[in-house]
Amino acid sequence: MKPIAGLLTLFLVMNCVSCESGKKSGENPFFTEWTTPYGVPPFDEIRPEHFLPAIERGMSLHDAEIDAIATNNDDPTFENVILAFDRSGAMLAQTELIFGMLCAAENNAELQALQEQLMPQLAAHYDRILLDERLFARIRDLYERRESLSLDAEQQRLLEKTYRRFVRAGALLDKEQQARLKEINGELALAAVRFGNNLLAENNRFEMELSTDQLGGLPSDVQEAAREAARGRGKDAVVFTLHKPSMIPFLTYSSERSLRDSLYTAYLNRCNHGDEYDNKQLINDFIRLRTEKAHLLGYPSYAAYVVDDEMARTPEAVYELLEGIWTPALGRAKEELAEMEELFRKDYPDGEFASWDWWYYAEKLRRQKYALDESMLRPYFSLENVQSGIFFLANRLYGITFRPLIVPVYHPDVTAYEVLDADETHLGVLYFDFFPRAGKSQGAWCGNYVEQTYEDGVRKAPVVSIVCNFTPPVGNTPALLTLDETETLFHEFGHALHALFRDVKYRGLSEVEGDFVELPSQIMENWAFAPELLRQYAVHYRTGEIIPQSLIDKIRRSELFNQGFMTTELVAAALSDMDIHSIGTYEAFDPVAFEREALTGKRGLIPQIEPRYRYPYFSHIFDGGYSAGYYFYIWAEVLDKDAFEAFRESGDLFNKRIADDFRRKVLARGGEQAGMDLYRAFRGKDPDRIPMLRGRGLWDGPDPADSTAVQAPTMRPVPDGIQAEPIALDGALRRE
Fold first, then answer.
1. What is the pLDDT of residues 209-261, one digit of tens each?
2. Which of 200, 357, 456, 719 has the fewest CB atoms in 10 Å of its CB?
3. One of 65, 310, 492, 569 is an active-site residue; which one?
């Protein structure tokens, strides 16, 4: 088959759709119907000053809708209570989606000020609704009569979820307790905004300017990227920053050990300097308030409160999974360290291997063991080629295609595509925003600007966005991705497919449990470096040469390389998250000392490995919606690796029948059933841990497909329950 890299026209219809909005200058776009193609937001008209009046009007309309439900003199019914509640607040929800996504991707001083003003107001608004005793009385009446209401399965689940949402928000508390809960929620909302803004400022203020004699070991493309970064800051110099596309190549290639130390130490100490951007007091505030909230709601800790609404159900189940991985992963990491120390001793006979040495000597070791390094691979992974690869994969699995669109965007870097289903019908719109900039948070995520809903029985298609911080193009050289960045794009594309395929009747059934939500994203990673797919998209950007089999073989042989380190730093972060949110009695504490004791003192984390995130910049758990939930990635990895076995066992990684099953039984269903029920419907069994352990190099036993295989303990079955609330403050799902 002909390789598709660089040839989007193989299945992208290249005619573009132009947009004419026709709005009057100065008119608030949130107050009028959008005439943009496919209902995308009119970003060319939206200004920061539009959000406050739009959100205030949205809250006012929502209040009126809630009051009408609560004061309805008719007997409560599914239609006049549950369905009416599910449909309420549409304008506010739409405005919030756009506001939250832009605050993450294109923030500025005006939006930051609005966040500080609006987030406590929004928290108070939702508290008024969820603690409205008139409304809850009608919901409770229906819940207590639910077995006699002749509801279908989706209606029954929506009723149960709605009732549980109110209970978890404090509807059963007395007035005094509810008043305190409102205060807590307002303080938490403001703390999250301040935490995120501090981190954004800290990321942007650091730079390491180097002279030409300090560039030892750095490839020419890394040097040129650093010069480009300096030009972006108005300097004729070489500048490295704390953004990972700048930092990781420096740590990987620089022979200047003291500079690696300076850069990585600055990264580790973000928001930990005792200045205006220090987050340690905010962390204390989070834990104090979250612990008090959990106690008010009848839970011993905030972790217990969060996990009760997830597949795991209890912190003990989470710890059982994480601790079971920790010991073999740390042991593997120590073996990796021993190999690298042999190389280190040749350079520094009397030195001590440190955390800022890991990337540098891991790359040296990879070259030595596999004759492989990133610099020889990246020309085959241009951003255009990798994007072609994900489009090709989606087409092979699901028959969908992607057509470039000309629509309003919020930044010149952003591109958009219409997504067409196999029958050429409109499925949704997908934005891509790939490169770092000052107003963008670090990391990668996927979220909605418009959510999939139904209006008058007609499906309203979603508008989805993938946001990344990839290595940008330099001069005439296109953006060349690392293997990690390539895998990240596959990951976020999985989230996007989940959103695009969703076909759920009720808004309240759109979301899945947090520890299930990473299944659709992480399963896509399994295809990223499969030889069958690499031969389709990994094409040298200059020569057009398909990636040779020799390089594919090296990638495959090295796929477990450094897995001990990567698993240990990931699980360390998940454990530190659970530990801090398992505090049962709050007393003021030093987060840095707490983390050190939890990981190094209690569990033996070696000093050469830092957790993937330290508390002062652990955005996922303090302002990103993953509090007591960073374990989601590991839990879902058990699911994704076991689910991918279905394709592997079939002998066809592009098996359309299995892909169609996955789409219909998992991706399209949202939260219409509990996550484990959705999984069993697709797989026909509970997930097995063995594929996950094997994928991380932690299992040497027989293959689970072998009928004689010794089965590892399966994940704890989950009783029928209620799925989690949306897990991210800005509606976005983040890469670990």
1. 999 999 999 999 999 999 999 998 899 999 999 999 999 999 999 999 999 99
2. 456
3. 492
